[in-house]
Task: structure prediction
Amino acid sequence: DVKVTQSSRYLVKRTGEKVFLECVQDMDHENMFWYRQDPGLGLRLIYFSYDVKMKEKGDIPEGYSVSREKKERFSLILESASTNQTSMYLCASSLGGSNQPQHFGDGTRLSIL
Amino acid sequence: DAKTTQPPSMDCAEGRAANLPCNHSTISGNEYVYWYRQIHSQGPQYIIHGLKNNETNEMASLIITEDRKSSTLILPHATLRDTAVYYCIVRAYSGAGSYQLTFGKGTKLSVIP
Result:
């Protein structure tokens, strides 16, 4: 079974802090993704990566950056956390290719106070 | 990506087959149909996907009509743990910008003891 592990289920941080969310997958997947999920807005793609050190912006990259130094690990960074970044953050991975499904972790519920 | 229409909610008796419909009348030839589900406070779970042939795996079966304008997800023997929101998604691969998964409102399936 595919395993996507997010480092924390719940996280509370303060406004202005730099926040790191970590994601690890154990299936040697080429692609990795970060989404946020908010009530009424569905899933929105923040960033994705199709290879080590490669990244592409999704629909809402502002205020975020990412790092992929190793194939299995994809980190999301909130440079200076703000209250409007309070959300559920979901990491996903998939094989490369045109129709491969994305497999999700259990999410990190982040609260910015 | 084509729009999908699903009923907002359904009930199913435990042990019976759950048949979840999805309408995607504007689907184009290169778009796949994916099904995911999300149990409260967890990340989305991939179930199955297909292009035009019926598909079956250990979790479910996917029946796609010959004109591909609708599909049905079948959970053959529903259990209480299958209570979740089920999302039908159609998606084509057309380059880097197509990785976004667009989740609609889905169908809330309640399995009744």
